[in-house]
Amino acid sequence: MNKKFLDLGLQPLANKYSKTFKKPSLKNDQLYKLTVGFNTKTKLVSLIKRIPDKKMFDGNYPYKSSMSNMMLNSFKNLSNKIKKRFKPKKFLEIGSNDGVLIKNFNTNEAVCVEPCSNLARITKKKGYYTYNNYWNLSLAKKIKHQFNKIDVIYSANTLTHINDLDDVFKSISYLLDNDGILIIEDPSFLECIKKGSYDQFYNEHIYIFSALSVKKIISKFNFELFDIEKLNTHGGSLRYYIKKIDNKKIKIKNTVFKQINDEKKFGLSKFSTYRKFGEDVKKSKINLINIFKKIKDKNKKIIGYGATAKASTVLNYCNIGSDMIDYFVDTTPDKTNKFMPGKNIKILKYNKKLLVNIDYIYLGAWNFKDEIFKKEKSFIKKGGRFITHVPKPKII
Ligand code: JHZ
């Protein structure tokens, strides 16, 4: 039932930035085949080969959600909204990262779940009850024992990272109060197709959700969608509001029918749409490589901006290395002075001086384009240009 539609070749683990560069090898299990399939029955898009959790989410996870103003604002607004709309007495976040959302709650009203110990330590230090565990049924039982039921469970960019979705929703159903609310947000597959952002796929993103697929999975656990919000974070995400079917106090909003309708109209129920996306990605690769080659033929200097997991997919799929990109700049301390996964391109700590005498910047963090353009006005003023592959490979 899981029909392959996208082949992104051999890829290293994204988010594994090493201090010294060594070409990853298949033999040492440092490369894996990144292929993506569509399940015609469940409508779920998923990676065909999965990597064990422990290889990805450990005590050295470098990504911190607090690294951008856009995310700080988005989470601040959301916490106000949750407090106003649902008034939770006990709020739980699955995948609390560095506490970017939870810090807007009091320590006695919020509980964190975070498998990466370096991140769990941050929220623990701030006084939040933090379980340094993977999300699963035995953890849900432990939390229930300690706190009884939870009335709002929230998870952003996390559930799509967990292999066993049945266990995910079964555990949530176990812990969530009968009148409780589950809110999840993740990149939208519809936006991914519209934007040609194939780089949403890397080892960590086992699934890319659509409203169609979420509706199907949650129905197995007696849940239903009652509201959907469109977000511009992470290149276009959806925030799904979910309740237990037996809870009749909450009415289902039109946003749910509208999103599902839009997805059906676009063709997200049909394999042919996915197959076409796979073909478009091949063209995107050729066009991006041509842009880089043309620029390099003129001996111009290119650097990368935002050493994202997404950029790792693009560089490895398109085979773009240090012959094209001199270095990446990034604000994340744990990525500094390391190499892009699979490529001998160094990541330097962001500093405006690193943009001087640079002709082109490849936007690794294209999802923060507006924030970056605002920050780099002087680069643009001096004639500097950006390269992106979203929605089509081009120079801006
Ligand atoms: P960003 C990560 O993906 C991994 P990535 C993960 N699997 C996931 O699902 C998503 O996040 C949500 C830097 N930056 O958010 C900071 C600057 O240097 O697109 C980050 O390293 N300067 C959990 O890695 C990177 O860019 C800036 O001005 O694809 C952004 O990474 C800004 C705005 C960002 O996620």
- Would you count the extended β strands for me? 17
Oligomer: single chain
The geometry reads as: globular
Integer average pLDDT: 96
Give every kind of bound small molecule, once each.
ligand JHZ
Strand order of the largest sheet: 6-5-4-7-8-11-10
Beta-strand percentage range: 15-25%
Give the proportion of residues in helices. 25-40%
Low-confidence stretches: none
H/E topology pattern:
EEEHHEEHEHEHEHEHEEHHEHEEEHHEE
How would you briefly describe this protein structure?
This protein has 396 residues and is α/β, with parallel strands linked by helices. It is built from 12 helices and 17 strands.
Characterization of this structure:
The protein is built from twelve helices and 17 strands. It is globular and about 65 Å long. The strands form three sheets. The chain has a seven-stranded mixed β-sheet, sandwiched between helices. Strands 14-13-12-15-16-17 form a six-stranded mixed β-sheet, with helices on one face. The two termini are 41 Å apart. The longest helix has 27 residues. Helices cover 33% and strands 24% of the residues. It is an alpha/beta fold. Ligand JHZ binds next to α10 and α11.
